[in-house]
Structure formats: C-alpha cells, structure tokens
Design brief:
- With 226 residues, this protein is of the alpha/beta class.
- The chain has two domains: 5-15 and 99-225, Rossmann fold, CATH 3.40.50; 19-95, DNA polymerase, domain 1 (Orthogonal Bundle), CATH 1.10.150.
- It has helices spanning 19-25, 31-34, 37-57, 64-78, 85-95, 104-113, 126-136, 158-168, 182-191, and strands spanning 5-8, 117-122, 144-147, 175-179, 194-198, 214-216.
- It has a six-stranded parallel sheet with strand order 3-2-1-4-5-6, sandwiched between helices.
- Helix 1 (19-25) runs antiparallel to helix 3 (37-57), helix 1 packs across helix 5 (85-95) and helix 3 (37-57) crosses helix 4.
- The longest helix is centred in the N-terminal third of the chain and has 21 residues, at 37-57.
- The protein is globular.
Amino acid sequence: MTITTAVFDAYGTLFDVAAAARQAAGEPGREAFAERWSEVARDWRLKQLQYTWLRAVQDAHCDFWEVTQDGLDWAMEAAGLGGDAELRERLLALYWELSAYPEVPQMLSDLKARGLNTAILSNGSPDMLEGAVRSAGVEALLDAVLSVEDVGVFKPARVVYDLVGKRFGCAPDEVLFVSSNGWDAAAAVQYGFATAWVNRAGEPVDRLPWTPHHILQDLFGIPGLV
C-alpha cells in the first residue's frame, strides 16, 4: 500500500539529545565538565531509556520529564559530578531547547511537498515536545505531535503506535515510521509499519525477531523511501 504518513520519533531522531551537554561543555567555567560531557550525555540517554522500559513493564508510568531528570542524576553521579546543582539545572534547561539535526527542516518540507502527513510519536510529554518543536522552528512542517501521555505507557507498548491510526485514519502499512532507536524501529515492524532506523552511530542491529526495513545514516534519504 502507498505510504501516506511519515511518523518520527523525536529525541535522537529529529532532535539531538547530546546537544544540551555539548553546549554546556563549551560554556566558560565548565572545564571539568568539558572533559566528561560525552560520557554524561551517553549515560543520560541510556538511563532515560532504561527507566522508560522498566516503568512500562512494571505499570509505573510517570511524566517523561521525571525520567529525564532521573537519568541525568544517575549520569552526573557516575561521572563524579553529582554535587554540582548549578550544572544540573543548566543541563535540564538546555534540554528544553535541543537543536534539530541540520537536515530536518528540508526533509520535512520535502515530505510535505509530496503530500504526506507528518507527525511526531514520542515518549516525551506534550510540553517538552512543544518546546523542542518550537525551538527547532518546525511547527509548520508537522501535522501532529503525538505523546504517550495520551495512553499512559511508554514505547514500545502497542497502544502507543495505535495513536497514529487514530489520528490519521490510516492503516499501519500506510505509515513510514522513523526512529534512531533500533528497538523502536523493530517494534514498529512487528506492529505493521514500514520502518527506517536512523543509525547515526553505526551500531549493530539489535538481536530481536524483527528487523527495520531500511537502515540509514541520517534523515536525508527519508523522502526517497516514499
């Protein structure tokens, strides 16, 4: 069936989750953090994801902002920076202003020019996503911003992917789902979406029963898939 709708994960897919730590590391007076920022950014993202999975399977849902803070606290303590309250507040403030990857505006514009619906489907809370979309300046290029808060459980729960069909009235095989998370793309395959995994880091494919239909290094090639 023809693809009518392109749906994107937000954090790490459209928005650079390392941008907050990278920017803070370049600010005056943060020389100690500059030596550890990439480690903190990596652990922050990993723990943020792990906490969503654990909360999903334990039926212990919370706002994504809570797991974002919890993940940062773990990462900072692991790096020996747990006592730096000012750095913590700065990193959290910057997370509301994450930059989009450079190809995002043109890629979304190309999809809209082809007549596709475009949307975000994210673990993020509505206010966090609103801030990121506004900061990136892509509001006019998205038809919907869908949050797991509507169903009260994090991805990869199937009810999250249901949100796309409910919003656009489309069948799963009309959807191209794009994520930088291999596990997310794999779960979307099992759901019935066409999927693209944006594997910027060149990681191995996850050992799961489902494999993404397309593996790309960035988002430039997305319009060519539809």
